[in-house]
Amino acid sequence: SLVQTATGVRELAKRIGQATIKVDLRSVLIVTKARDNSLIVLTRQLAMWLIKTRGICVYVDAKLRLSKRFNAEGMLAEEPRAETNLRYWTPELTRTMPDLFDLVLTLGGDGTVLYTSWLFQRIVPPVLAFSLGSLGFLTNFAYTDHELHLNRVFDEGININLRMRFTCSVHKGGHQTETFEVINEIVIDRGPSPWISMLELYGNNHLLTKVQADGLILSTPTGSTAYSLSAGGSLVHPEIPAISVTPICPHTLSFRPMLLPDSMLLKVSVPGGARNTAWASFDGRHRVELRSGDYVTVTASQYPFPTVTAGPMDYIEAVSRTLKWNVREQQKPFK
Amino acid sequence: SLVQTATGVRELAKRIGQATIKVDLRSVLIVTKARDNSLIVLTRQLAMWLIKTRGICVYVDAKLRLSKRFNAEGMLAEEPRAETNLRYWTPELTRTMPDLFDLVLTLGGDGTVLYTSWLFQRIVPPVLAFSLGSLGFLTNFAYTDHELHLNRVFDEGININLRMRFTCSVHKGGHQTETFEVINEIVIDRGPSPWISMLELYGNNHLLTKVQADGLILSTPTGSTAYSLSAGGSLVHPEIPAISVTPICPHTLSFRPMLLPDSMLLKVSVPGGARNTAWASFDGRHRVELRSGDYVTVTASQYPFPTVTAGPMDYIEAVSRTLKWNVREQQKPFK
Amino acid sequence: SLVQTATGVRELAKRIGQATIKVDLRSVLIVTKARDNSLIVLTRQLAMWLIKTRGICVYVDAKLRLSKRFNAEGMLAEEPRAETNLRYWTPELTRTMPDLFDLVLTLGGDGTVLYTSWLFQRIVPPVLAFSLGSLGFLTNFAYTDHELHLNRVFDEGININLRMRFTCSVHKGGHQTETFEVINEIVIDRGPSPWISMLELYGNNHLLTKVQADGLILSTPTGSTAYSLSAGGSLVHPEIPAISVTPICPHTLSFRPMLLPDSMLLKVSVPGGARNTAWASFDGRHRVELRSGDYVTVTASQYPFPTVTAGPMDYIEAVSRTLKWNVREQQKPFK
Amino acid sequence: SLVQTATGVRELAKRIGQATIKVDLRSVLIVTKARDNSLIVLTRQLAMWLIKTRGICVYVDAKLRLSKRFNAEGMLAEEPRAETNLRYWTPELTRTMPDLFDLVLTLGGDGTVLYTSWLFQRIVPPVLAFSLGSLGFLTNFAYTDHELHLNRVFDEGININLRMRFTCSVHKGGHQTETFEVINEIVIDRGPSPWISMLELYGNNHLLTKVQADGLILSTPTGSTAYSLSAGGSLVHPEIPAISVTPICPHTLSFRPMLLPDSMLLKVSVPGGARNTAWASFDGRHRVELRSGDYVTVTASQYPFPTVTAGPMDYIEAVSRTLKWNVREQQKPFK
Most buried among A132, B296, C212, C333, using CB within 10 Å? Predict the structure, then answer.
């Protein structure tokens, strides 16, 4: 009967990963690099199209409010509904009132999606990521077809993939000092110093191993195509609830990458008495120094990152396309 | 709310993996190599101890029924309860009536545990694996302390780990010919032929990739410490519901091992028109030739393999002990 | 002074690897797949061009002597010098009288070059390898420009690269039974049997290591882009006098590939008392069973394989082109 | 005949690598960590033994001249020959007058041998490395048997291995600023900055590849057991004249480590227009920042590092002992 329950739970998890959701879309947020001129023009066109054809609220970056190129006044003149429906977001708003937004549209590359994860440190609305050039790992919708894609979203609903994030808490000098949500990875490395202290890795408060290496990567499945892959980690499908532990240039030949269950509470510490410090970085953005006795805890977040999928084979297509995973070059035959 | 459901399901899965179960143990089955003389003596002692001190039924290998060394008659003379409580199992019985047994005890090495998986092709009772020498991956209880361990099992209950198995179905000439439950891996390789055909790997009926390699390993988490590891795969904790796809000597540099969710139906086929055949093997035991058009399907089994755990860090201790995972040799200091 | 001598020797080796040689070309041998119709036509055109424009002797495959498509009689009618200058080679002739040929031209792919190495088991004339489609590792001249390339060879000379070959001797039942020259690798693996015996690897008659693996690859620098690479070996520039030792799916995590000096005499043996046999194969062609007590010796051959180079960066261009070594896909930018 | 010359050169190289040299030992230099008290005592004992039993000159670190623990006056009192035969070395002396010393003895670990390489930036006397604890890669003589080993050296001569060093020249702002001899490796990495510029790797002034990675390691055979190994490089026997190119966490899956001939002039540059700097370090000691346009050249040094070998299988024994290369743990059998 335990087996039956377990099988049932597994079945449930499978269905959750594949459900099509009909969302009542009344408000959409657009994230992009606000300083890029061509992106300002695209943002304006997209916002106008959404307001005109769908009559919904559109939040754009507050930095555009006074942009001449964005020309908000011109929008109001052209479309009266923009008076109420064109709104502005700030990082403060996304952090505190994520429930305001039914959908996030990103224009740009994978970096823009990572930035969106930073904006929403708690609940994240579903994110549909448009690519402006080649499709990436996370940017799986071509902007050239954006009207087609968006009409489908409005009319048929969306399939989403709940991508795991980590909640990382930094403990320095005996106190918790900072907490970050990451969608790719946390890296603890030697930073500017030529030597790293030995690190200690704990799982559920048991010592798993002592790490002598350039550093240690704890990666989500989403991050398994990023730094972890460069350091020799395996590719991990985003539906798998696992944490990749990948050492960077380890001193032992036997330190093979390991996947741990996402139910495990991980802790990486700089042991007491260590002479050198270590540096933690979070999705490659923030850098925090860890001294002797300091540590970081890492757990699967309660706030996953829901991405809209383009099809059932999204992931395989992304790794084939972007990494050339097992792609053989076509040889030119003789004619 | 989808997120909340998903979080709830994850929490549920976590608890299932850690529950202590009080089992009403009335019947125990002992698996060992029946032809090894020293093991016959141990089996006899263990059976007697279980019947005498706990008064339960003990099933031993039917090959021992007439063994002089086992001396069943002597047991009856010494302990009258053996008349009813000493029973004999056959592969037929384990296959058809697995519910007869509340617990399986194995004496030997990891191979004996693999053999137990073969005996129980459907429902598997909890398995407690004793090692007679060094502890292995699966043999995590030292036989030297068997009375201590068994008394704890009777008095306090057991923690079990539901290890994933695969259900592998062979399709030849358009018909399903055989089905195997494996606990380590299925390997499709070139067998005796010097060349392999290209293989095709499908997930949920979509082509994932074409494989040009010496072979392909589809491994459970349990099997991630076996052949998959030799071929470059990562270590995967047994609680993770993932299938490792590991190529053997692939022709492309980019064919990095990949983990797929266990909800995916995998299929490996020899494409139509292929000149060479491939060979599938199941836990290293059975070998089946696959010709052009033949294929094997692989899914997470409904019948996992429940193993009794020795402690919360069982897995890490096993890989440290057995693989020397990231174990640094102590250097002799100067005195 | 020892250091000075060593430096001098190194300098000498360097110059040998880079010399331009003016060859007095009076006789050329053409190797191709004699059964491929389009190749027969090309062979005929090439032979005619060489006889007509350069007046030299051309040896073609004796299988073409009676080929209607090759039409030797028509050649004689068209060009009287063909009477004396069109000649035929057989494997017997290449084996026994390699000095007859000043240059070998191969038409085809890398396989045709490997076949040429088999034809010349002792001294090998310089080999210029034409590719009919994409350039390969060894086929570094495009046939579409063959007149240009050949005129340069006649007028300016050639640069050659002396590619190391191995002399492999098989010892069975106490006697040396066969000897092979290989240009890529010798592989000792489990062949058709599901299990391999442990192998023993000796260097200069000292035991280097015991091998528990699917097999062992001993590779020349030329072979480092072939099977050794699939098994995890490094790329080795063909000018380096080293033997790559690469295990196939080893049982220990620490069995990292190793390069040994080509001055070392290697021996791979199946130890006495082994239950299973092993199989040796030579450039993927010949397969020899090794039983308990049998062994193979491997040394750098006295008969290297001289290939004509297309330029100083030949090797790097070949690995970039063929393996996509560190080639980044160009991402399509947004327009 | 080219082949014959090449074979002769190879044979010559082989003999140089294996010659036993009878050295007329009149002066020995001892290198150790001068601040370690126990080492001071050992240095004193060793110097006295050499002066008393062999009557040769012994150079010790000039820092010991006034050390109470070393007690040079006591030595003079005990052994009058110490008056002339006990001498002191300074880094200045080793740099400018290396010919003064017939043999260097190091007491300590591999770090002390690396330090010796730094002391002798041009000609290096033969180095015999004593280990005070476990033997290391370079410290292949146990100090506990030092009298035995030294008597053999005096009476029978030594075998030496000429370990390749690199001459690395730093070019900044259009000028050569520094030159280092390294015995392990030169590393170019991102240093303290979170991002690295793309690097360019040139061989003989041809672009070999553009490097997007955490860094790049150019390693000697001696260094192949150090950082290069951690980054995934192969083990390279010290007699092989090759340069290992090993990327650190490369961005492409196809950037496999490559071995280049030591006759090649390598150059690593930070391309013009790069936004970030890179950092070069030499045997892990010195750190130099490279800005846009700066570069480092690397060539096989004219000044190799001659180490005294303990036996013909020195290298294999060292990697087995120190790296546990393909060493299988003995499993405890059942008794």
Answer: B296
